[in-house]
Design brief:
Blueprint: H1 2-18, E1 28-34, H2 35-45, E2 49-55, H3 69-77, E3 80-83, H4 90-96, E4 104-106, H5 107-110, H6 125-142, H7 147-174, E5 179-182, H8 188-194, E6 197-198, H9 202-209, H10 216-227, E7 233-236, H11 243-255, E8 259-261, H12 272-292
Parallel strand pairs: 1-2, 1-3, 3-4, 5-6, 5-7, 7-8
């Protein structure tokens, strides 16, 4: 990681020395750490921004992403950088800490999360609405001519986010007492919003968060919960598919426990709102299937 940070900083220094700001007639250049934040920025910026998402491969695990000097150059030359923060996309933070001149939106900080909070804040929809509003304000500062459009786009985006929050609340109301096993802690905020009680063993969760193999006893405990039908749904992150997570998914399929995908970046051809809406719909449908078969 240290080697990556060094070459990223060197690349930014080179860009700062020779780069020049885009002309007034050009679109505002926005760089986002992932396609998730790129989609939010694009929704707010509309026709007046050009967004580049550094991580946009639907199969890429953001935690294992190796940034390039070209990525650092893009960050240093952007008029606005939108990133997750909280250590999630450390390569962006490493570049920005050496260049105070780059305008930025740190979602983790905007949401007021604590240092040890779960970093997957893109599932915290109330926070995402705040980020959209903050992006609108930053774009207006860069491009005052289109400030009204940015504010209007942010308001429209936020209204749709509130609609998805209402869907989450309906899931919680319609399926009280539902439980989940999660192959990774990406769904923390989704579980809270939909009223799911997480039954994943603590040792398993800690190992998954540290990107290490869970203890055999915790794997066995997960499989036992599934085999005994003592859980409503399994939440599976396909971007961190391992032999262990595959065993859990296979066990769920064999036991008839629904499996719902919870991703970290956008599926191909999707945007943030469509992705989040689809995830909640899939979760609600899975819980409905379980409830309909419960005596």
């Amino acid at each position: 990681m240290r080697r990556v940070v060094i070459w990223l900083v060197a690349a930014v220094a080179a860009v700062s020395a020779c780069g020049s700001p885009p002309g007034q007639s050009e679109k505002v250049s926005v760089v986002a750490s992932t396609s998730v934040w790129g989609s939010v920025a694009a929704a707010v910026g509309g026709d007046y921004v050009q967004v580049r998402s550094l991580i946009d491969n639907p199969a890429q695990d953001p935690h294992s992403y190796d940034a390039s000097p070209a990525d650092a150059a893009a960050i240093g030359d952007a008029q606005l950088v939108v990133y997750n923060g909280g250590g999630y996309d450390y390569f962006v933070e490493a570049v920005l800490q050496h260049d105070d001149s780059v305008r930025r939106v740190d979602a983790f900080t905007v949401g007021g999360h604590q240092q040890d909070s779960n970093p997957h804040v893109f599932y915290d929809l109330a926070m995402v609405a705040l980020v959209a509003d903050t992006i609108g304000g930053q774009l207006a500062a860069v491009d005052p001519t289109h400030a009204a459009a940015y504010r209007s786009n942010a308001e429209e985006f936020t209204d749709q986010v509130h609609g998805i929050e209402a869907m989450q609340q309906a899931v919680a109301a319609n399926h009280p007492g539902s439980t989940a096993i999660s192959t990774e802690d990406v769904a923390h905020y989704l579980e809270a919003a939909t009223g799911l009680t997480d039954k994943t063993p603590e040792g398993y969760s800690a190992a998954a968060a540290a990107d290490s193999d869970p203890p055999p006893a915790d794997i066995a405990a997960v499989l036992d919960v599934i085999d005994s039908h003592d859980v409503s749904v399994v939440l599976f992150n396909p971007q961190t598919d391992t032999s262990v997570s595959r065993r859990i998914v296979d066990a769920a399929n064999g036991a008839g426990v629904p499996v719902v995908e919870v991703r970290e970046t956008l599926p191909a051809g999707s945007d943030f709102l469509t992705w989040q809406r689809h995830t909640v719909e899939q979760l609600g449908a899975a819980l409905q299937r379980i409830d309909s078969h419960t005596p």
